Amino acid sequence: MTKSKTIWQTTNGWRLETVDLQRPDGQLEQKGIVRHPGAVVLVPLTAAGEVLMLHQYRLALDREIIEVPAGTRGWEEDWLLCAQRELREESGHRADHFIELGDLWPAPGVSDELMKLFLATELTPDPLPQDFDEDISVRPYPLPELVTMALDGRLQDAKSVAAILRAHHHLEASNNQ
Amino acid sequence: MTKSKTIWQTTNGWRLETVDLQRPDGQLEQKGIVRHPGAVVLVPLTAAGEVLMLHQYRLALDREIIEVPAGTRGWEEDWLLCAQRELREESGHRADHFIELGDLWPAPGVSDELMKLFLATELTPDPLPQDFDEDISVRPYPLPELVTMALDGRLQDAKSVAAILRAHHHLEASNNQ
Lengths: 177, 177
Description:
homodimer; alpha+beta; Nucleoside Triphosphate Pyrophosphohydrolase; 4-stranded mixed sheet
C-alpha cells in the first residue's frame, strides 16, 4: 500500500483521502477513505417518555427525514461537551444527565467515523443557534412508537435505529432491576 | 445552490461531488456529497438458528470488525441478484429464500446511499470468489447472542445492529402468529 493522499476536505470536518492498492494482476487500484472527526448521537427523553426527534432536510437525499439529534465533533472537541452543544443546537434543550449507549461505525467500508451514542434526560429548554445550512423542526414521539418504527423500517436512518433500540433496551433493563 | 461538480470517483462504485451553498454572510461554502449506487445487507440464518457473521479487515479503521455480509450494488444491478451475489461471495452460501427487512440510510448527512436489508434462509454452500482486496472469515453466531451484542454495544457496525434487531423482531413476530 502506498501513502495516502488528501483529495478534498471540508472547512472543519471530514476529508477524503485515497490510497493505491495493488491488485493480483499487478495493477494499482485507488481506494477512497473518509477521515472523520467522529460524531455524537442523542436520544433526548422527556419526563413524559417522549423522544425529541428531528424532521430535517437532507441535501444528499433531497428530502426531509426523521432522525435523532446528532452532529459532527470538532477534531479536538470533548465528546460530552460536543453532545451538550449539539443537543442545544438541534433540539433547543440541554440535558442534565447523559448515559452512554455504546459506539457505532456508520460506514466502516469507506470511513473511519466513530459515533458515540447517548441517552439524554432531565431536559430544559436552552437553545443555541442552528448552523446556517440546517433546516430542522423538532417533534416529540412516544418511545414505544419509535421502537416500532425502527423495527418495521419506517425509521430508515441507521444511527437513529440503533440509538432508539439501545435506549429502549437500557430503560427496560433499568426498570427490571 | 450552484451545480454539483464531481471531485473523485471509484472505478465502478461511489463518487464524491461538491456543491456550493451560500452562507448568510454571502460567502460560498463548499459541501461534499457522496453519490452511491446503494448496497445490500444480509442476515444469513442457518437451520440451527445461527447467523453467518464476518470477521473482516477494514482498511478505513485499520482493524478487523464483526459484521453481517453486505456489499455495494452495481449502478444498474437488480437488488435481489445483488443480494444473492454478495451472499455467495462473502459467506460462501446461497439462499433459497429472502425476506425484506426494510431500508436504511447509513450516512444521510453526506451520502445518498440506500441499503436494502434481507433475512436469507435455506442456505446451501455455493461460494463465489471474493474481491481481491477482501480479507474475510465467516463465523456462525447464535442469533440471541448477536441481539445482546447489538444492544450492549459490542456490535458497533451500524447496518449490522439494525439488521440483526430487525431480523430478530421479524422471527419473533412470525413465531407468535
